[in-house]
Structures are given as C-alpha cells and as structure tokens.
C-alpha cells in the first residue's frame, strides 16, 4: 500500500524548498536501512523488485532502448552507485552511460518451447544479484514471441526503486518512446529536484524540529504495545529472507463486499482489509495491542512527486483487537490510528528504531513482524505507437517480514478484473500447511464481512 490518496490529507511541509538544498554525498535513511539489511543477508534477492510487461503490436527495440537511456539521463538516481567507506555509505552519481537491454528472439521457437525458454529466462533474471557499487542497478530484458507479441522483464534494486517511481519510470519511458517515434521532443518537464537533494533535505529535516516532533509522537503512539509477536510456533534456526510466496485472486464479487462494507462504515477499503488481517493476526499471536507495518508513499512534498527514487517508508500502525471484538469496532479504531500515524509517515523506520533504543537483530524485525499493504500507486496506461500492453508484478520467493501481504486492487491499466494478493511467509517459520491455514482463516473472515460489520 502506498496510501497514495490518503497520504495527501496528512502531508506536511517545511519552509525550505528541497530544490534549495545542495546535493548530498550521503544516502537516504531509507536506502541506509536496505544496505544494512543486505549486509545481514549477503546476496539476498529480497530487495529486488520485478515485473513483467506484456505487449501486443508493433515494437521498435532500438527506439525502446534509446528511450530507456533518455529516462536514465533525466534522473540521477538511475545512474547512482553506493559504496561503504570509513564514514559510512556514500552515493556517487555517474555521467550518462549506454544502458543495454537484453533482447531474446523466440519467434521461431514452437509455442510450447517458447514458454519453457521464457520461464528459464525469467528465473535467470529473478536470480540476478545487483552489486550496489556497479551500474546499472536495473535489468530489462525483451523477449519477442512473434511479430506482434512481446514480453519485457523489468528488475530493479530497491535502493533506486519504489512503487511510485516504477509508475514514473514507465510513464516517462512511454512518452519518450512515442516522441521518438513521432520525431518530436518528449512532453516531460525536468524533475524539480534530484534524489541527492532529497537526501540532504531529509537528513536536515530529521535533525531539526520536525524530527524531534516526530520522535516524540512515535514514542507516545507506540507506548505500551507488544513489540514482538509471532504467528508461528516454530523458532527460526537460521535467519534468512527466504520465503514461501502465494498469490490469490479476490473476485469482483468478494471485493465488492469490501467496497460496500467500507462505504457503510465510512472507512477506506484498505482499512477494511487491514482490519480483517489484524483480527487474523490477533487470533494467531494472542496479542491484543500491537503494531502492523504498512508501506506508505511518504512523498509529502510536491517537489518530490515527479522524482524517481527510493522514498517509500514502512510505517507501524497500532491496532487493538480485544477478544470477540467485532469488525466495525476494529475498523473504527484502525481508521483513527492510521490518520494519526500518517502525520509523521515519512520519518524513516530505521530512525525510529534507533531513537527508541531498539536493537535490530538478524531474523527479527523490531516494532512489528508483520506487514499489510495496498499497492495502489499510479500505473500508466501501457500504450506505444502501434502497441498496447499491461504490467504484472511478480514475486521472487522471499519474505522481508514474518508475514508480508501486498494487495493489488483490480486496475484496467494492469489488465486485471480480480484483486490480486501476494502473501509472503518466512520460510524459516512457516511450512506450507501453516501458510494455507492462515490464508484460509483470512478468506473465511473476508467472506463474512457483510454480516459482521
């Protein structure tokens, strides 16, 4: 979830514009957290983001590659590397370079074999491990299946990526491709700020009054909660980010009941789904007052809306679920709790952990161990001159939390009529039967929301 709509209602601003800051050689606090976790788990793929884009129609691979390079030239973060030195992590912005997409012509291969070869190609890409010291930190492969049928595999490292940025990247890529096809200049304004200016602004903000107010808020907001919960009876023997991944399709009828319930209770659809998940977790963990993480866009300033870069934050949402509490009461509490948390949504989680004096241990996330998000960031309509397509996010058998659930509402631009749900379970804590039982409990409760709210 990025709470793309809701977060605007809680936006805050500082007097100094981000564009007034000189670029920093530091990395953002968001990036720093990822780098530290990668140091815990060398070679992990958990911080790769991946998607497949399906195309139908005429497609010019040379123009497509040129369009990618134009976008990379426009956004410094796409040509930034990160290194660890004596004073910590530093960022280096490199000049524009010649990005090469991989092209694979499968058009002469019989269709059954095409699928096998493409599946192998996809797995090869999913195993790709980025070196943060070396460009590029994204990988794009194009597979041609026939004269008018194509598939693109897009993989990026999370230090340069978030869901919002993915939509920006493809929006600019499509406009640039179409402009090149028409022989005109792309209708794209230069980004008002580059990512390293955002880094300087973010760190100054955290050190200033806003940061002090944010820490005071979070200390009060989280006071008294159960900091460690577990929905598993197992002890993790070897900490890793390996996961058991499941994908569910929620039918329009079932999701329609969510929409109706949300309208009746005057809350968002996210709050209804989040509340159902909270009730399942409370039952599984025995906790009544605890936090669940959720991903928020954290783009509280207008200047950073057009900026590609890692800004998303995972924010704790306090929940209270007493025994026999009905869904209506849970929804009402979480709605209020959510709006309180959004006031300081862009204080990076790692800053909060540090200020609370919590120790980040390998294999155990501090403050919350479970996460539930809506992935509702903007997705451009995939249209090129002579071609159309849609984006499909995919999983890579990892899990950043004990349980991480991502809901992708049905979206015409994604070519979906069903709401998709990704369930990611820690492989060290849950076996297949455990996962299925928890998912079944969630679906059973979801099916009864019209009667219980």
Note down, in words, how this protein is organized.
By secondary structure, this protein is of the alpha+beta class. The protein folds into two domains: 21-182, Chloramphenicol Acetyltransferase (2-Layer Sandwich); 225-452, 2-Layer Sandwich (Chloramphenicol Acetyltransferase). The protein is built from 13 helices and 14 strands. Strand 4 (102-105), helix 4 and strand 5 (138-146) form a beta-alpha-beta unit. Helix 9 (269-285) packs across helix 10 (327-342). The longest helix has 20 residues, at 163-182.
Structure at a glance:
This protein is of the alpha+beta class and 453 residues long. The protein has 13 helices and 14 strands.
Q: pLDDT below 50 for ≥5 consecutive residues: which ranges?
A: 4-14
SSE succession: HHEHEEEHEEHHHEHHEEHHEEEEEHH
Taking all Cα atoms into account, the compactness measure Rg is 22 Å
Tally of individual domains: 2
Q: How would the blueprint of this fold be written?
A:
Blueprint: H1 6-9, H2 29-40, E1 48-57, H3 61-74, E2 80-85, E3 88-93, E4 102-105, H4 111-126, E5 138-146, E6 149-157, H5 163-182, H6 195-207, H7 209-221, E7 243-250, H8 252-265, H9 269-285, E8 289-296, E9 313-320, H10 327-342, H11 349-355, E10 370-374, E11 383-384, E12 387-393, E13 403-408, E14 419-426, H12 432-447, H13 449-452
Parallel strand pairs: 4-5, 10-13
Antiparallel strand pairs: 1-6, 1-12, 2-3, 5-6, 7-14, 8-9, 11-12, 13-14
Helix pairs in contact: 3-5, 8-9, 9-10, 9-12
């Amino acid at each position: 979830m990025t709470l793309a709509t809701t977060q605007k209602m809680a936006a805050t601003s500082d007097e100094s514009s981000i564009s007034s800051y000189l670029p920093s050689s530091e990395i953002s606090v968001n990036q720093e957290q990822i780098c530290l976790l990668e140091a815990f788990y060398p070679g992990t793929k958990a911080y790769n983001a991946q998607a497949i884009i399906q195309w139908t129609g005429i497609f010019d691979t040379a123009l497509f590659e040129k369009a990618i390079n134009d976008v990379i030239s426009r956004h410094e973060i796409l040509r930034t590397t990160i290194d660890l030195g004596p004073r910590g992590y530093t960022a280096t912005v490199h000049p524009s370079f010649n990005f090469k997409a991989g092209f694979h012509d499968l058009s002469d291969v019989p269709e059954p074999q095409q699928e096998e070869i493409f599946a192998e190609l996809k797995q090869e890409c999913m195993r790709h491990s980025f070196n943060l010291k070396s460009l590029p930190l994204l990988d794009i492969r194009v597979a041609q299946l026939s004269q008018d049928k194509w598939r693109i595999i897009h993989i990026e490292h999370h230090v340069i990526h978030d869901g919002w940025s993915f939509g920006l990247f493809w929006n600019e890529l499509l406009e640039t491709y179409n402009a090149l096809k028409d022989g005109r200049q792309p209708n794209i304004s230069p980004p008002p700020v580059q990512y390293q200016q955002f880094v300087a602004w973010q760190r100054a903000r955290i050190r200033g009054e806003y940061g002090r107010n944010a820490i005071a808020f979070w200390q009060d907001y989280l006071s008294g909660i159960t900091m460690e919960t577990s929905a598993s009876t197992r002890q993790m023997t070897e900490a890793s980010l390996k996961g058991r991944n499941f994908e569910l399709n929620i039918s329009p009828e079932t999701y329609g009941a969510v929409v109706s319930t949300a309208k009746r209770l005057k809350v968002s659809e996210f709050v209804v789904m989040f509340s159902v998940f909270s009730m399942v977790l409370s039952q599984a963990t025995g906790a009544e007052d605890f936090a669940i993480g959720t991903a928020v866009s954290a783009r509280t300033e207008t200047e950073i809306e057009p900026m590609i870069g890692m800004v998303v934050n995972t924010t704790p949402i306090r929940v209270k679920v007493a025994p026999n509490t009905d869904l209506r009461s849970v929804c009402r509490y979480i709605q209020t709790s959510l709006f309180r948390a959004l006031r300081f949504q862009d204080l990076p989680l790692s800053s909060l952990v540090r200020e609370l004096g919590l120790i980040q241990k390998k294999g155990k996330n501090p403050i919350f161990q479970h996460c539930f998000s809506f992935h509702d960031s903007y997705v451009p309509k995939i249209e090129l001159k002579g071609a159309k397509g849609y984006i499909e996010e995919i999983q890579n058998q990892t899990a950043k939390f004990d349980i991480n659930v991502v809901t992708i509402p049905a979206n015409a631009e994604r070519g979906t009529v069903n709401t998709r749900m990704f369930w990611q379970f820690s492989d060290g804590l849950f076996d297949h039967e455990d996962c299925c039982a928890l998912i079944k409990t969630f679906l059973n409760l979801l099916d009864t929301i019209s009667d219980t709210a």
